Structures are given as structure tokens and as C-alpha cells.
Amino acid sequence: MFRIKGPKGRDLCDSHLGSTRRDFLRVGGAGMMGMTLNNILAAQDQSAGSPHAGKDGWGKAKSVILIYLQGGPSHLDLWDPKENVPDKIRSSFKTIPTQIPGIHFTEILPKLAKVNDKFTTIRSMSYTPNGLFNHTAAIYQIMTGYTTDKVSPSGQLEPPSPKDFPNFGSNIIRIKPTDEPMLPFVMLPRPLQESNVVGKGGTAGFLGKAYDPYYLYPPGDDMKMDKMDGLNVEDLQLRPEVFSTRLRRRAKLRKTIEDQMPALDKAVEKFNLDNYYDQALNLIVSGKAREAFDLEMESEDLRDRYGRNTFGQSCLLARRLVEAGTRVVEVVWPKVANSDNHSWDHHKDLSKRMKNQSGPMLDGGLATLFDDLDERGMLDETLVVAIGEFGRAP
After folding, report:
1. Cα separation of the two ends of the chain
2. Alpha-carbon distance 17 to 24, whole Å?
3. Percent of the residues in the chain that have a pLDDT greater than 70, as a whole number
4. Which residues pair with 104 in a beta bridge?
């Protein structure tokens, strides 16, 4: 499911890119469709002269929230049920009407069915990966827009490498940095992980660590209801003995020393350390980032609406981060593929596990996110993408 508004899909994810929101998805989230970042940038001149330029919805999106449903949820049992088909294809769940006439979801998504006039459901996207047909290859391709055979012989369980292609969020913040001292790219409530390999497809790769996401990984079980209350962001605040003026003096001294050591400066210039230092300094001094992570500032009622679970509170935190100026937030489903209970990788007991576990969490958290963004006047400026690495055959 994608939230894309505007005349016939002509909305831009950014006015500087000169490309449609659907084109943006081809950079990362839907890179498997064949359009790369170079294609996007090359389209600037053509898009600038578009007759749609300047109309309502054009160039409004300032931030992206990716809701990544890791594990490959069955679209047939969620937002793409098939009717008047043989039993072996039809979902075991009942279908329900939505706000849009003729569009049906399954009974698992009653709240999303009431707000689907706020987003567009795209049912025509597909791709065929190169190499192995597995979660790892699909995750890498959907997050970077490139197949794993470009960096890995097998496409299976290699750890992250500086040679990797960057995550779509890293591309975005490199092209369009934040406008104020704020974390540009946050991944929560955990990094990307497949089996025991953490981070493949979720780093800045060859762009350098300055464009890596800021990872949140609260301690405790992934499905613990109060897990998100245990966020530790002490690295985003000054130590009591170091006030902001003193810290800035230290930064100025570091710069002076570096200027006197051109050989050292040249040796590390490819790592873009100046950019990294500046970001870190501004974040710590402003204190804005740390405040954005304080979920206790939200009302109890709103937190209940999102769902008192890791996914629901992660969606709420994503809204708070975007509101504070974060450019990209990637909400990764709390359970990895083929794990217990709430995973989307339903190898067995789909009808029970999806209806009673993963389904209600998705429905409450995502539907409330749409409503919350809309009520705050943020929906037109926030591109919300909900997607798995692949769907399921009947």
C-alpha cells in the first residue's frame, strides 16, 4: 500500500528532484521496477516543463515514512482479496467494503478500510530478482533498487559492506539534507536483519557512514508492550560538565588543527567527516532530536489509538520525528522473517496468526498514523509507504 495523493500520480516527493512520487519509489522502495537514481536526476529538465508543475500537490512532500512489513505479508489476505475465484485462490478471511466504492480489504483491516481515501493502494507492482529467490535478495533490492548479484555471489546472508549500494533513505538525505539540526534518517525499532545478519540493505554503503541511518534498538523482547518506553538516546545530549559554548570551542579547535594538517585532511576527505561532525554537533547542542523521542509528551488516548505495542508506538515516534524535521523514517516490523508469532513470514497457521497477531497491530498503528498526520496538517507533506519485500502466491 502506498499513500500517494495528487492529480493522476503527478505529485513530487521533492520539488528539487523534479520527479513523481511513483518515480521516487523506483529509486528505493520500488527500485525493482527498473528506474535508478540516475534516471530520476536525468528527468529534472523534462519534469520542470511539465504542465502539472505548480498545481495542487506538486512538490509538497518533504518527508518519507517507510513502513516496512518484513517477512513478505500475503497481500491476498490483506488489501488485495480476490473475489469470484476458486477456493484455492480466495482468502480464508471475509472481505469488507472500504471508503472507496468497489475497493475491498479483508476483515483483518477494518480501521484501514475506513481511511483508505487518504492513500492509494497499488496492486500492480511486481519484480523478478536476479539470483536466489529469498528474503535477503528481495530486501536488498527493495531497499537499494539494485539486485544483490551486484555485490554478492549468492545474494544470501553476507554482512553489510562499504561496497553496498545505499539504502533509499541515504540517497534522499544526501540529495536533500534536513533544513534544521535534526536527525536526517532514522531506522526503528531495530535495524534491518535477516537471520543473524544485521544491516544488509540498510546502510549508506558507498556513500559513507555520514549518510547511515540513526538506529534505535531498545532492549528487551521485540513484542514487549512497553518496549518503546525504554528508548535510550543519551548520545543525543550534552554531558552535564560540557556546556554548548565549550563544545563549540572544542569543535573550532579541532577544525583549526585539521587546517594545519593538509596531509591528514586529504587522507580522510573521502569519508566526509566534516559533514558528520557538523551534524553531530548541531544535533547535540540543539536538543531537538532528544525531545522528539519523548513519547510521554503525547496523550494517553493517542498512544492507545496507535496501539500499546512496539509497532504502534514506532509509528507514533515516526510522526514525532517527521514533525521535528527528520527527512526519512524507516519503521521496520518488530519481528524478523520466519520468527515466532507476530512475524509476516507465515509458514503455518496464517489464518490464526495474521488475524490475532500481526493484522490488528498493522491496522491500528498505520490507520492512526494516517489520521494523526491528517489532523495535524502533515499528510500532504509526508509520503507514507507501506510495503513488504514481496507478496505471496495463492
Report:
1. 19
2. 9
3. 61
4. 97
Is there a contact between 168 and 29 (Cβ–Cβ < 8 Å)? yes
Residue ranges of the alpha helices (H) in the chain?
21-27, 37-42, 44-48, 110-113, 135-144, 168-175, 244-259, 262-268, 273-286, 288-292, 300-306, 310-324, 350-353, 359-375
Do 194 and 136 meet the contact criterion of CB atoms below 8 Å apart? yes
| Interatomic CA distance for residues 340 and 210, integer angstroms | 35
* Residue 55 binned pLDDT confidence (cut-offs 50, 70, 90): low
Q: Cell numbers at residue 37, please?
A: 537514481
331 contacts 307 by C-beta, under 8 angstroms: no
Q: Dihedrals φ, ψ of 197, to 5°?
A: -95, 125
- Grid cell digits, residue 215: 538506529
Residue 382 is predicted with a pLDDT of 96
User: Dihedral of CA 189/195/197/199: which sign?
Assistant: negative
What is the identity of the amino acid at 150?
Answer: K
